[in-house]
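Hey,

Quick one before I head out. I ran the complex with uridine-5'-diphosphate overnight. Inputs first:
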Amino acid sequence: MVDQQADEPAQPKFKRIVLKLSGEALRNTENGDPIDGDILQTVCAEVKKVHKLGVQIGLVVGGGNIFRGQLGAEHRNVDRTTGDTMGMLATTINGLALMDCLEKNGVPVRVQTAIPMDKVAEPFILRRAVRHMEKGRVVIFVAGTGNPYFSTDTTAALRASEIHADVIMKATKVDGVYDKDPMKYDDAVKYEELSFGEALGKRLKIMDATAFSLCMDNHVNILVFNMHEPDSILNAVMGNKVGTLVHE
Ligand code: UDP
């Protein structure tokens, strides 16, 4: 599906992206292993294909496969703020797994954390993050925004705004945005593209409200796509029709 001219290789449509990966995407749904080695390798191989094209990649990873603050508060008698801190630490665990796997695949990486932990990773420093990307290093942003009551979708919106990313690529289990849940309804219709206003008007849940409004206010487009389809990030970056683009 990747377009290639005979004499001149096609150029990527996006130069700098934020890839948002949910923690759940790393889980083995059959045996419950929160970080599955094969899934991790598949994800990193897909990232490598895009990195090879010279695309600058910021990766924001969630922590839902390990801990979510709200659930901690509801089911485990853990205070929401404590739970959120645990959730942010969970994103750090996932980020370190991705770092290691990407390095094993020959992709240079730096991890930057919003909660300082100097034995583990660099602190988040915007200019340093941009410099890493300019030098061809994938930057993995962990520990969310560093604040409770936020999500890693909001982190992706924030980091994308800060680094002036061309797009947030949000990996989900389905291949785009539908008018109703395609897992439940056979007649669900997929949108090829949508404006922020249309998504709001139709009450489509693309990200949580904080993340969505941050993207809208800062003109950051969102591409919702299915990461489990081979070459999906590559195709999206090359401008081929993949998923649903939510735009201004
Ligand atoms: N979290 C937080 N502040 C942030 C980002 C995340 O407190 O800025 C916590 C929150 O408890 C959240 C958890 O970290 O539930 C894991 O993040 P998220 O739920 O976004 O992960 P995902 O659903 O993408 O796996």
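The helical segments are 37-52, 69-75, 80-104, 126-134, 152-163, 196-201, 209-217, 232-237.

Talk tomorrow,
K.
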